[in-house]
């Protein structure tokens, strides 16, 4: 019987999943899908390895599955689909690992409780990432579960990059720059030698509803646009990005806003949505003639260009840029404008290649190369989960033979 690994990425009202099948030494995607609208009108869609829709279901308005119901429904569905494969482990995306968890870890109740204590650092993600873990721990205690952290990739950054200019008694509580989207950056780093083998100084642009940039030197994260929380850095779909902390004090003093109202403003009402007043979706903004939509796009590109300059400075230059994630992979106009703003670095864009969505979008003689590489965080999680599975089995075998 062949083995399978399930990867889960849970949001506040969604559950995305990928099923990876062990085939000889390779892990290959078998199914991908998601359950959305878990508390309102749930929707279920599943695609096979070729991207063909193989199953879908729509619940009535007002029906609620919740995360527990979603896990139960998914489990029943997978039992029918696994066939000769046996589910041996579940890997989870967990946004925040704090200072302690700098590598993937096999989960138990104590670790889940510890990770729950980091909710204040990632309020939109952490509690929801942990829900399926707790459900499966209660229902299937013997099933190996592994947490993979978006912060872990950045643990190689120097202290001067991680630190805020705050009193030591504050920073010792964990108030520091962490960086996020680490699973995406780790995946890009793992495959980049296939594209730009000689590139030592790389800036990866993870541009999606959540957006950040990372400076990677010799395969290690040295700086990131995101900091203490995932609201920092670039303007995003609904998150404001970099903000003078004095603005928060002003909102409290002058507008009498409380903590929850400010949290909602910074995380859910700002970014592209807040600036445009139209949408958080870059596709909608690019199609719009509204001046505020244009300004939101202009601001997004400007802030990328500005952050790119800062990250280039940390490495003393750049050998390659990599665009990835939803906007990075599917918005040639954004790639074009960013590359044009980066011409001072020595980047010469190949406009035809960019429009065609080619892997290399810079000219062959460009001093700095530019690439379009789709990210695959789920594959990265599956790989980490398999590695921990193998270590667990090796340890068990060692105990039995001694």
TrEMBL record:
GO molecular function, one term: magnesium ion binding
Family matches, as Pfam families: Acetate_kinase (PF00871)
Keyword NAD: no
Cofactor(s) demanded: Mg(2+); Mn(2+)
Co-factor binding details: Mg(2+). Can also accept Mn(2+).
Highest taxon in the source lineage: Bacteria
Enzyme class per UniProt: transferase
Chief location category: cytoplasm
Residues where ATP binds: 16, 206-210, 281-283, 326-330
EC number, as in UniProt: 2.7.2.1
Positions annotated as active site in the UniProt record: 150 (proton donor/acceptor)
Family statement: Belongs to the acetokinase family.
Record function comment: Catalyzes the formation of acetyl phosphate from acetate and ATP. Can also catalyze the reverse reaction.
UniProt name for this protein: Acetate kinase
Organism: Deefgea piscis
Source lineage: Bacteria, Pseudomonadati, Pseudomonadota, Betaproteobacteria, Neisseriales
């Amino acid at each position: 019987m062949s083995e399978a690994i399930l990867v889960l990425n849970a949001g506040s009202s969604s559950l995305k999943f990928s099923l990876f099948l062990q085939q000889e030494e390779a892990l290959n995607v078998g199914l991908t899908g998601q359950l959305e609208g878990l508390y309102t009108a749930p929707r279920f869609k599943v695609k096979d390895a070729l991207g063909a829709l193989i199953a879908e279901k729509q619940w009535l308005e007002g029906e609620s599955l919740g995360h527990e119901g979603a896990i139960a429904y998914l489990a029943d569905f997978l039992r029918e689909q696994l066939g000769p494969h046996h589910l041996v482990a579940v890997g989870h995306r967990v946004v925040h690992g704090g200072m302690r968890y700098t590598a993937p870890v096999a989960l138990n109740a104590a670790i889940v409780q510890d990770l729950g204590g980091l909710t204040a650092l990632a309020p939109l993600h952490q509690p929801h990432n942990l829900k399926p873990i707790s459900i499966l721990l209660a229902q299937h205690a013997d099933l190996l579960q592994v947490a993979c952290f978006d912060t872990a990739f950045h643990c190689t950054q120097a202290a001067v990059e991680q630190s805020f200019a705050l009193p030591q008694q504050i920073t010792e509580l964990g108030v520091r720059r962490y960086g996020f989207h680490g699973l995406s950056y780790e995946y890009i780093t793992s495959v980049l030698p296939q594209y730009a083998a000689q590139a030592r100084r790389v800036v990866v642009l993870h541009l999606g509803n959540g957006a950040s940039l990372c400076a990677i030197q010799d395969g290690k994260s040295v700086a990131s646009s995101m900091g203490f929380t995932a609201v920092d850095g670039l303007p995003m779909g609904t998150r404001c990005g970099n903000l003078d902390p004095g603005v928060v004090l002003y909102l409290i003093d002058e507008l009498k806003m409380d903590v929850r109202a400010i949290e909602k403003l910074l995380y859910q009402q700002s970014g592209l949505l807040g600036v445009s007043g139209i949408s958080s979706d870059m596709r909608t903004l690019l199609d719009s003639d509204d001046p505020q939509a244009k300004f939101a796009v202009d601001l997004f590109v400007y802030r990328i260009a500005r952050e790119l300059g800062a990250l280039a400075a940390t490495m003393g230059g750049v050998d390659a840029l990599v665009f990835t994630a939803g906007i990075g992979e599917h918005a040639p106009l954004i790639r074009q404008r960013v590359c044009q703003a980066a011409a001072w670095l020595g980047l010469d864009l190949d406009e035809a290649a960019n429009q065609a969505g080619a892997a290399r979008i810079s000219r062959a003689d460009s001093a700095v190369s530019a690439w379009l590489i789709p990210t695959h965080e789920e594959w990265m999680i599956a790989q980490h989960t398999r590695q921990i599975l193998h270590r667990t089995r090796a340890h068990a075998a060692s105990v039995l033979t001694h």
